[in-house]
Amino acid sequence: MLRPAIQLTTAHPGDPIVARIGGRPRLPTDVEWPEWDGHGPLSFIAEVDLGALAQLGLDAGIPLPKQGYLSCFYFDGTYDENAGIVSVQDTDSMAGARMLHLEGDGVRRARRAADRVPVFEERLLTGQQIMTAPSYEHRTLVEAFGTPGQDYDEWLAHPINAEPFTKALAEMRGDGEPLHQIGGWAAPEQEPVELDAAHAALELGSSWDDARVEREAERWTLLLQVDSDGDMCWGDVGKLYWLARHDDLAADKLTDTAFTWQSGAQPGSTAQ
User: Fold this and answer.
1) Are 117 and 41 in contact (CB under 8 A)?
2) How confident is the model over 51-72, as pLDDT tens digits?
3) β strands within the chain, DSSP E
4) Domain CATH for 177
5) What is the total count of domains within the chain?
6) 60, 110, 168, 267: least CB-packed within 10 angstroms?
7) What is the pLDDT of residues 72-119, one digit of tens each?
């Protein structure tokens, strides 16, 4: 069940640069800065250089285009003093997060953000190979190792959830934090992030009792995970997640991604 992934870590002199978080986005002149109508422009979060990533030769566990860029934006509430919150329970907030797939290597220029839009400290990132496992609540794990009628305490007592084993799995994922990641199994702060993506895709609003959620969740997988880092802090040191459908990744289609953020102290998670 292990999936390979690429952990994005601080680049040191001589390291190949495959991504960056913060700073100013470098966008083609014909691409508009993403906005959420009625709320304002989004903050630039991260950029992944797909060509540089391909040259590095690491396995993300998912098929990715070998050229172009992924440019990610998120409305963190600073611009409108938290009047707008991106939430899986509010389909109107879907425009509060965006991932742009900028194909080719056309001319791109750094853009200055509008006033009051936070510009986070820029960090250049390189990549290293890691292996990832599903979280203890993930349906894939429960169906493989659980038993019918098993309650929560019985599941936690299963050897696969024992501390020595889970610690060993965590060590395979990589050292320390922040945990920025491309592909593989996500490191959720709450429920499996695929459930958030499914809930948003089905446009269920506040309802979580729809039987279609589990089936829809199987269609989604992690594309990019951006952890709290320095002046980037999502809720109570949470994470941002962009996901894509398996079929879209296989067809090099990254135009219909899903978004969620989770925080340990947040009563719910949010999604686009």
Assistant:
1) yes
2) 999 999 999 999 999 999 999 9
3) 3-10, 19-21, 26-27, 35-36, 40-41, 43-49, 69-74, 97-102, 109-110, 123-132, 180-182, 220-227, 239-245, 258-262, 270-271
4) 2.30.320.10
5) 1
6) 267
7) 999 987 777 777 788 777 878 878 999 999 987 667 888 888 888 889
